[in-house]
Please model this.
Amino acid sequence: MPALDVQKLRKDFPNLNLKVYGKPLVYLDNAATTFKPQYVVDAISNHYAHGASNVHRGVHFLSEQATKAYEDSRQTVKVFLNAKSTQEIIFTRGTTESINLVAQSFGRTFFKEGDEILISAMEHHSNIVPWQILCQQIGCTLKVAPMNQKGELLYEEFVRLLTPKTRLVAMVYVSNSLGTINPIARVIKEAHSRNIPVLVDGAQAVTHHPVDVQALDCDFFAFSGHKIFGPTGIGVLYGKQQFLESMPPYQGGGDMIASVSFAKTTYNVLPYKFEAGTPAIAEVIGLNAAIKYVQAIGLENMAAYKKELLFYGTNILCSVPGVRLIGTAREKTSILSFVVEGIHPHDLGTIVDEDGVAIRTGHHCTQPVMEFFKVPATARASLAFYNTKEEIDILVKAIYRAKEIFK
Ligand code: PLP
Model:
């Protein structure tokens, strides 16, 4: 496996040259959103500068050009996820919208009072709240598979919670606040052995390693463009064709129809049935560029390097007196959540920011995880392939400065 030339690759990201408070920016907030390479920025600005037009609606040159670029991106996503067909690739605003789509279209149509939806204890709010809304609407019940003190799914408990009433398992692949990589293939196999479909929240997983939805055999898979070096406002819902065919539209409007009259409306074929209104065309084009960028470097190469960073970061953070890591799963990705004794994470975040270090502090949209670990919040350093050991050292130095201040 070729080693990454990180210093060379860093040049692709204009934001990595930024200075904050006169200091070089150390950006360690990649689980919240990743920086965009110039290649992606150019793809978006090229669209606006040389051909912005609406898709699917015009016969004129620019509209056909925009439609081609838009559909090319769908083809890229299809290959990226190894979906069977582009009909299974729905463009959404992001992971959150993808999950809401499944809850409101699939869940509201096919689940009934007393049915159960099973999630895990480490879900992002976007894989909790859509199901709670659905439960309120139709009277189904949300069940939660617990985790241990390392932040690992208690697999036997998960299996025990699968009942004849379970209609869906919705689970995060890689936890954004703990870094845990769930045994998602095993989860899917287990659920399928009971004929229960599975939705995978892949928001953090797509930057971690290659995803093959056919090999996983998941029924739905959601991710966001901005977590994989692409634009905000664009995401994907992959769904198996047989499920998507059976589901009613999520929203009504232009593009999702075959014909409209006041008496009766018929719907467009997949995937357009789920893409009402003018889509985020520039963002779809940007996502295409982002995926191509990632593919050119190789997700495996990135993962191997990030593993090194994780090992280095874990060791050095654990050597700082008073630091406690939250999330120590055996299988984890390059996310380091921690608390420092005597310093509130928000204070820590503010102090390290003065040194140019951007980390996230808070509950990371996983309040139940904070409750489980009995902490109000954590500080989180989430590492991308463009981060370096030197940047981790700068973070650690900044933590020592915070400790001095709070002594
Ligand atoms: N799921 C996980 C695991 C996440 O990390 C995030 C974002 O942080 C989401 C879902 C929601 O993604 P978005 O806000 O892009 O819809």
User: Anything to note?
Assistant: The chain has a mean pLDDT of 97. The two ends are 46 Å apart (CA to CA).
